[in-house]
Amino acid sequence: MSHNYSIISCTYATIGDPNPFCFLAGTVDGVPVNPACGVFYYLVAQANAAGGSATVRLVLAPALLNGITTPLDGHTLPGPPYAPEPVYVGSVTPVSPATPGTNVSVAAALVGTWTQ
User: Are 20 and 61 spatial neighbours (Cβ–Cβ below 8 Å)?
Assistant: First the structure.
């Protein structure tokens, strides 16, 4: 079964962590992932280094689907068992440090809307 995915934002606020936990906000079939689900920075960065936005979408789709708390069909939640995110290995630039009290956007995760 295919779903329509949309990324609204992906941010982190960790100071001094080279692989911060990022809060991913988006939708699956128009249903918001609420609260925002999380992915680690390197998961997104390595997918982007390995294949660009198409590969990032392959990583973020299961993360979004696993974050759904409202049944998409009106009565059944999509998990468990939860779909695993694929893992890619690529050379990545270290994360920019966050200034206390601010969030940093993860540009590589802003891959728009797609069906998968």
Answer: no
Domain total of the chain: 1
3-state secondary structure of 39: strand
Residue 45 identity? A
Residue 72: burial class (beta carbons within 10 Å; 0-12, 13-18, 19+): middle
Q: Report the distance separating Cα 101 and Cα 108, nearest Å.
A: 22
**What one-letter code names the amino acid at 35?**
P
pLDDT in tens, 44-81: 999 998 899 999 999 999 889 888 776 666 656 655 55
* Centroid of chain to Cα 2: 17
Q: Which domain holds residue 89?
A: 4-115
